[in-house]
Automatic annotation (TrEMBL):
The chain crosses the membrane at residues 16-37, 49-71, 77-95. Signal peptide: none annotated. This is Solute carrier family 66 member 2. Keywords: Membrane, Repeat, Transmembrane, Transmembrane helix. It comes from Pipistrellus kuhlii.
């Protein structure tokens, strides 16, 4: 059996592998952020996630897109940048929502836990038994 007889199988297989590799390039950078997103959303705690990483990746991918206008490169890399920018914006949105909600809860707890002293000062729970 010669190679010419297998062209009907090799050409579609090569195209399929090429599309699979392009898809892995486009979405491969986003995959590690899926468990982080789910964990932050589930626990409502974004303390372990650095927003500076999002900033660096946003700048890098925006620069890559701007470079593409000057000198075109492969389209999967362009799509990777677009998908990564969308992912970083979603991560930043979630982190800011969680951090703002946590800060508001802390302020509410502090306000409800404090008492006013007869002299007009706020007395925190650690100083309840002391006089003004």
């Amino acid at each position: 059996m010669d190679v010419q007889g297998l062209d009907w199988l090799l050409v579609p297989l090569q195209q399929l592998v090429s599309w699979g590799a392009a898809g892995a390039m486009v979405f491969g950078g986003v995959v590690p952020y899926i468990p982080q997103y789910r964990d932050i959303r589930r626990t409502q705690n974004a303390e372990g996630f650095s927003t500076y990483v999002c900033l660096v990746l946003l700048v890098a991918n925006i620069l890559r897109i701007l470079f593409w206008f000057g000198r075109h490169f492969e389209s999967p890399l362009l799509w990777q940048s677009i998908v990564m920018i969308i992912t970083m914006l979603l991560m930043l949105k979630l982190c800011t929502e969680v951090r703002v909600a946590n800060e508001l809860n802390v302020k509410r707890r502090f306000f409800t836990a404090s008492r006013w002293c007869s002299c007009g000062q706020v007395v925190t729970p650690s100083r309840w038994h002391t006089s003004c």
